[in-house]
Specification:
The structure holds two protein chains of two kinds. By secondary structure, chain A is mainly α. Chain A contains nine helices and five strands; from the N terminus they run H-H-H-E-H-E-H-E-H-E-E-H-H-H. Chain A has a three-stranded parallel β-sheet with strand order 1-2-3. In chain A, strand 2, helix 5 and strand 3 form a beta-alpha-beta unit. Chain B is α+β, with helices and mostly antiparallel strands. Chain B is globular. The chains are: A mainly alpha, B alpha+beta. At the A-B interface, helix 3, helix 4, strand 4, strand 5 and helix 7 of A face helix 5, helix 7, helix 11 and helix 22 of B.
Chain lengths: ~280, ~625
Amino acid sequence: MSQLNLQQLHDTEFPVPADMQGNVAITSLSRIYNWSRRSSMWPLLFGLACCAIEMIATAASRYDLSRFGMEVMRASPRQSDLMIVSGTVTKKMLVPIVRLYNQMPEPKYVLAMGACASGGGPFKEGYNVVSGIDQYIPVDVYVPGCPPTPQALLNGLIALQKKIDGQLLTNLDDVPWYGVGPSDAVPIPVLGPDIIDPRQMELIRRQAELAAQGQPFGMRELPPAAITDVEKAKAKMKVKGSAAPAIAASGASEDVDAALAEMRNRKRQEALARKRAMMKQ
Amino acid sequence: MTEEMTLVPERADTLPIEGAIDYLKRKFPDAVKDDTRQGYSGIIVDPAHLVEVARTACDELGFNYLSSATAVDYLGIDDSMEMVYHAYRISGGGALVFKAQTDRNKPEIPSLIEVYPGADFQEREAYDLYGIHFPGHPNLKRILLWDGFDGHPMRKDWKEAYYEQETKPFDSRWPKGYVRRAEELNVFGKNVKYPADLDLAKLSDMSEEALYSGMGLGVDVSSFPAQADELQTDRLVVNLGPHHPSTHGVFRMVVTLEGETIVALEPVMGYLHRNHEKIGERNAWNHNMPFTDRLDYISSMSNNLGYALAVEKLLAMGARYQPPTYRAEVIRVLMVELTRIVNHYWAIGFLLNDLGAFFTPALYAIAEREKILDFFEATAGSRMMCNYMRFQGVAKDLPERIRSVASHVNDKVRDFNTMDYLTELINERIPRSVDELDRYLTDSEIIKERTIGVGYLSPDMAIAYSTSGPLLRASGVPYDVRRAEPYSIYPELDFDVCVRHNGDIYDRYLIRLDEMRESIRILKQILPRLEKTQGESVFAGNKAIYMPRVPIGEAYGRVENPKGELGYYLVSQGDPKGPQNPWRYHVRAPSFINLTPLGAMCRGQKVADVVAILGSIDIVLGETDR
């Protein structure tokens, strides 16, 4: 949208006299703010891993990011609006990333590109890998793929534009940066024996106290959801008497499988309902 | 000793490997013995005499090129730790494998940096990940992780935060598919694990302090004797990276400057250390194939080939191994050479970027790269992460037609006969674009001014620092694994090993053009072989089991990657009947080792040249940090 389309903006209840329609536009503040923000989204020139190569390919001539007003990659966080986290975030790299994020002026957006940035990806179990950048900084759009194709990245960027279109200046949850005073910076993680999120200091302290008393450290009891099914099934088998262990195992797992299938089905139904609601809109 | 010396033939440096081992055993009868374990080769050297033995191997026997040095932890097998060295002759031939064993509880092996300066980073890596100390190493500190990290993660008894089980497939995933997200099990909800004696009061970010000490920070300038006619300048420490547009990723250089001249440069890496080796040792053998894609993510096909070759070396020790079919080998070479062209396009485009021609040359290079990626996408299903090679073959044959898999609209645009597409690509399109790059760039006055004589690396240094690939060959050393230790069908192909003699950035740029032309020459010989083998099988053996049993032993497979020599050191100790996974999975990454002489190359240069020198080495961080 290189030129402001007046007709598109005239979507308010105030009528404009017919002879003035070419000269005067009445619109909402949100709309004009959103329009200017979404049409000049400058990403931070910032590549982490494999996904960065696809990001460069997206910016290059074949896929041509500049069609969306996003080709101006800025090497300085002070000049950029969008951080494309393109690749695996390691613990060592997380510290500079959070610092860069804090240095970006608001309004700012984050796009997690690829499986690693979204949730750890294939390297999730690695000791030096952060399982998803969203554990430390807020993310607006997730783009799946390993790596996402340039088309997928473009789709993610268009999704971000749509998200911006829907933001209302009156809703401070949408646009916290128009509230009173500066927003809080994300606390910068510390590289200790392992990475330490300052927001978790209290939790870590409590756990350390537990450890000092000789109690298990760092492990959590399983939440009661599906595991109880197994326990129930095991209990059931025990009541029945001395069944052979092999049969017991298969019996228990059938129960678990049924519970899982039911859960999956329920989730699928919920997702379908959400999708239908969206289609209606 | 003198009597024994008379037995030495006149040319010890041309002895075959067995002869060289005999020579060492005669010279050091107490220190050297054969490695007699099943499936192992080479010699075991007493650590006390390791430096002498290495010096003899290097100076007298001619094994002057240390390809790989890595550690293995044999916890539960013989409870020792071992350093494994692979040394080659720069004139070609097989490896002299020598090992030094040490106690697991107090691991200590003398540093070989005096004999082979290329051992520098590799010993630091072994110290970082295994905790082996190297007396004699001048700068022994962590290289991939940060100072203060808890433990040495590659040791077999070190468990990561999301640890579930020793080997894959995890019971929770298969056969039952009953799985919990690792975050749910961790009380912090994150991939973290703290030692039980964590003291938060003492916590301060120590990770940078060791780095800066000794870098000349805070030097009092007035203490230097200033020359009357010289400009008195401050000594300054500048950080380039990890977030810097010219570092090709998340690489970091700490540069000490005297005015604009570089006094010292210290590479800092590990910002993309994503634990390939630890994950690789939990994986089953064939699980690792897609992970190798993500090492040097610009040339995934060549990484696949290196790993396939290494595992095939292991498999060949077993009974049921079938070598890949001829068509599979032809397709492998086709893919690998196309990858080389892709990589060199990228390298040249971004070298120009680093020289200040912001993005225009890169756009030309990337546009050509896309054509090859279309072919990869049609064949392997993915543009970049191809995951295409298999042990004993490749995943599937070339498709009949090349179509876009991305969208239906493009289907009508992009629909070609594969052989026609390849023929046009190889005979016309790529040669034309290489000539185009040559025509626009080679004679450019600016490029010549910026690159000729800058970042000089002498041939002796290039060999001593274990550099490989275009960096080594641009310094006048014609060493190419495809010729030095041939693999696949390279012996029957007609091509030259490119070599340039000036060892500066300009020659490193020119040699990439040369290599692209040689690749085109190879590809032109591949086309008729593809036609001839049409319809033949691309996979030897039973396709239903991609993963045959791997016998116990060790193997080092290496290929000439676009960036240099990529090697995989694999140790199999698995249960011959149960589930199998690599005991040791080490990647000898060319990008990592080619960085060893970076500090030496940059000393005395201007700060603006650092970026160009780094660009001319052509690194990829996925491989540097692994």
